[in-house]
Specification:
The complex is a heterodimer of chains A (411) and B (266).
Chain A: E1 4-18, H1 25-32, E2 39-53, E3 57-62, H2 68-76, E4 83-88, H3 108-118, H4 123-137, H5 152-163, E5 170-174, H6 182-197, E6 201-206, H7 209-215, E7 218-223, E8 226-231, H8 233-253, E9 263-265, E10 270-279, E11 288-290, E12 295-303, E13 311-317, E14 323-328, E15 344-351, E16 358-367, E17 374-387
Parallel strand pairs in A: 3-6, 3-7, 5-6, 11-17
Antiparallel strand pairs in A: 1-2, 1-4, 7-8, 9-17, 10-12, 12-15, 13-14, 13-16, 16-17
Helix pairs in contact in A: 3-4, 3-5, 4-5, 7-8
Chain B: H1 7-24, H2 33-53, H3 63-90, H4 92-97, H5 103-130, H6 142-166, H7 170-184, H8 197-204, H9 207-219, H10 227-231, H11 239-259, H12 262-265
The chains are: A alpha+beta (411), B mainly alpha (266).
Chain lengths: 411, 266
């Protein structure tokens, strides 16, 4: 137990959500005579156990409503568990968000002292560190103004520079990086680096997998109130991204925008009857692809009359309508045969995934051999998603290998 | 107990009280003076109507002081309970996001009321000096009586604050109770006005009536009907004191049991 900072053991937490809220005594009395009033029991956390070791930078990730914030509030002692126990070794920061207790009607200075008191500092200690706080927040000129006249960025800066004064053994933070501009985020990052270097125990709830990868020693993925995975942050981040993709898969498969297309043209002598993407190994239809998966594109055509050696082609476009990939059967030296009226052709292509994260569309066509007649062409018909890249700001991310050579002396 | 008065808790408590005060008089020209002016103006009104026009309390020496002391003590009780009532709900932002001892919020509200009481008592003393009221030896009992009102007020505040989280009717009910209480308690009228001894006894079982009468007896004039003089030496006279302590115990227990769920019920 010595090296454990936080031990959560078999914690269950549920909230009762009454169907009619009894906010007044009258309705309470009324319902006494009407037994069986209904409420929904919502299990937010189910048998959750985890240990955070001393000096660990521990990440808790999960989708919205997965119960991660509830877990954080339980650890922070704001909620109490229905069953199970939470043991904390050492002093915990009492708040989980920045700027809690800020009062818009008080001046910046007064709020600093109030917030400091919430962190456990008395006035003498606050006087000693007041100037540091103000200059770190870069708000010297504004301290005697009421907080309601601050911009949201200024409020966050002030809150952050107070919060980092906290001298506690365990720091608990919920989504701090969601707010603030780039400069402020840089400050946060360098603060995190310092925390990690100094061996401070930190529990951080976040959506941002790059933060998890960069800072966390260990992390836990919560999904639907249970711990799905706990351990290596890299694996947890991957699983989280996979779950996100799965959810997106459901959304795309449920027909959202699949039936829509931007434009359709052609003589209809042959028709595109199906556009889909599929998993290269299983051949099953799939709309989301991780970085490691190849992308399969399957086009199904039907001829309404005899079609002689048609050209089959498609392009992939990103969200900004840039064409990121184009191909047809001729450039791959795949000549087509004549197709009889009423017959079907299935055209499958498997592509190395060099795309970065994002949504893509398929535009497909069937044309005459020399591309002079368009039989059918559907623009931006099918949507699919790519996710799970560690870098996603570039347009593409093809497979690549690196070597670094070290040479003695100059050349 | 050591934990309750730790350095951190003291710092937080003083900061809570400070902001409470600042916010209450935010934007008003007279600011803190209002805490003094309010009971003084009430006193002035009641004095003119009941003492000057209706000639109440003619047989009681220093009746204006007698009246003022009653009003000040009642104001204290009304403040501690009604500020306590809304304290938890009013500080919901803190409770939902920070782990601080919940009782501290009710306590800070009660301390604001205590500070007001101190200022108001100062005025009472000034009036006493101006009115040439003899300093009675029984005055030493006053702090004990104030403690009793505080115990009672804090107990009621804890119960109300807890109930208010779930039932928002409580604030309206309490408003009515306070208003009725002001007239049921012998603040305006001398208790001697009621000639039926049984009624006198019944009225004095109310801890606020008992403490106000005792305080008047101790501080202003011995010509005050107190619970001891009505009940004689029977143990009945202890009922209001026991009641006050019991209310505090119930309040603490109820608050303690429910405070775990404040964050999710708010």
């Amino acid at each position: 137990m010595r090296d454990i900072a936080i031990r959560v053991k078999g914690v269950n937490k549920s909230f009762k959500l009454p169907h009619e809220q009894h906010n007044s005594i009258k309705s309470l009395f009324v319902s006494v005579f009407r037994p069986g009033r209904t409420f929904e029991k919502q299990d937010v956390l189910k048998n959750v156990s985890l240990d955070v070791k001393q000096g660990e930078f521990f990440g808790i990730v999960g989708r919205n409503g997965s119960g991660k914030s509830t877990l954080l509030k339980l650890i922070a002692g704001i909620y109490s568990p229905d069953t199970g126990g939470i043991q904390v070794n050492g002093k915990l920061t009492p708040f989980i968000e920045l700027g809690v207790g800020f009062n818009p009607e008080l001046t910046g200075r007064e709020n600093v002292f109030m917030n400091g008191a919430l962190l456990g500092f008395d006035r003498k200690e606050m006087n000693a560190m007041y100037n540091d706080i103000v200059s770190f927040a870069e708000l010297d000129r504004f301290m005697d103004q009421k907080l309601k006249n601050y911009s949201s960025g200024m409020q966050v800066r002030l809150a952050f520079s107070i919060a980092i004064r906290a001298k506690t053994d365990i720091l608990i933070l919920d989504e701090v990086l969601a707010v603030g501009d780039l400069d402020f985020q840089k400050k946060c990052y360098s603060y995190f680096f310092n925390l990690k270097k100094s061996g401070q125990t930190v529990v951080l709830v976040t959506h941002d997998m790059s933060v998890v990868r960069k800072f966390c020693n260990r992390s836990a993925l919560i999904s639907g109130g249970v711990i799905e995975k706990i351990g290596d942050p890299e694996e947890v981040a991957e699983l989280y991204e996979e779950i996100n993709l799965r959810v997106a898969e459901g959304r795309l498969a449920n027909g959202e925008s699949v039936k829509q297309f931007k434009q359709r043209e052609g003589t209809k002598e042959a028709e595109i009857i199906k556009v889909e993407t599929f998993d290269a190994e299983t051949k099953h239809s799939q709309n989301t692809f991780s970085a490691k998966e190849k992308i399969g594109v399957r086009l199904t055509y039907k001829a309404n009359k005899l079609i002689e050696k048609p050209s089959l082609s498609f392009i992939l476009q990103d969200q900004e309508d840039r064409t990121v990939f184009a191909t047809n059967n001729w450039i791959k030296k795949q000549p087509t045969k004549n197709i009889n009226s009423g017959d079907t052709v299935i055209f499958e292509t498997i592509i190395d995934n060099a795309l970065t994260d994002g949504e893509y569309t398929v535009t497909s066509a069937i044309e005459s051999t020399d591309f002079s007649v368009i039989y059918d062409r559907i623009e931006q018909h099918h949507k699919f998603m790519v996710g799970g890249h560690k870098l996603s700001h570039a347009l593409s991310h093809p497979h690549h290998e690196m070597t670094i050579h070290y040479l003695k002396g100059g050349r | 107990m050591k934990h309750i008065f730790s350095k951190q808790n003291k710092a937080l408590l003083s900061e809570l009280v400070r902001t409470d005060f600042k916010l209450r008089y935010q934007g008003s020209v007279l600011g803190y003076t209002w805490s003094l002016l309010k009971p003084l103006l009430l006193f002035l009104t009641l004095y003119i109507i009941f003492v000057k026009f209706l000639k109440l309390g003619a047989g009681i020496p220093h009746f204006p002081i007698y009246l003022l002391l009653g009003i000040v003590l009642w104001t204290f009780f009304a403040e501690i309970t009604s500020q306590g009532l809304s304290s938890i709900v009013g500080r919901g932002d803190l409770i939902r996001k920070i782990r601080i001892p919940r009782w501290m919020i009710v306590l800070s509200a009660s301390i604001s009321a205590l500070i007001n009481l101190g200022l108001n008592l100062l005025i009472v003393f000034i009036f006493m000096i101006a009115n040439n009221v003899d300093l009675l030896i029984t005055s030493v009992w006053l702090p004990l009586l104030l403690v009793q009102i505080y115990v009672l007020g804090l107990g009621v505040a804890l119960i109300l604050a807890t109930a208010y989280v779930k039932y928002r009717d409580v604030s309206h009910i309490w408003e009515v109770v306070l208003q009725a209480g002001f007239y049921v308690t012998p603040i305006l009228f001398p208790l001697t006005l009621i000639t039926n001894v049984t009624y006198q006894k019944l009225l004095l079982l109310n801890p606020m009536a008992q403490t106000i009468q005792d305080a008047r007896y101790a501080l202003v004039t011995h010509e005050t009907l107190t619970i001891s003089s009505v009940f004689g030496s029977g143990y009945y006279r202890l009922i209001p004191v026991i009641m006050s302590v019991l209310i505090l115990i119930v309040g603490v227990l109820y608050f303690k049991k429910q405070s775990k769920y404040f964050a999710e019920n708010l």
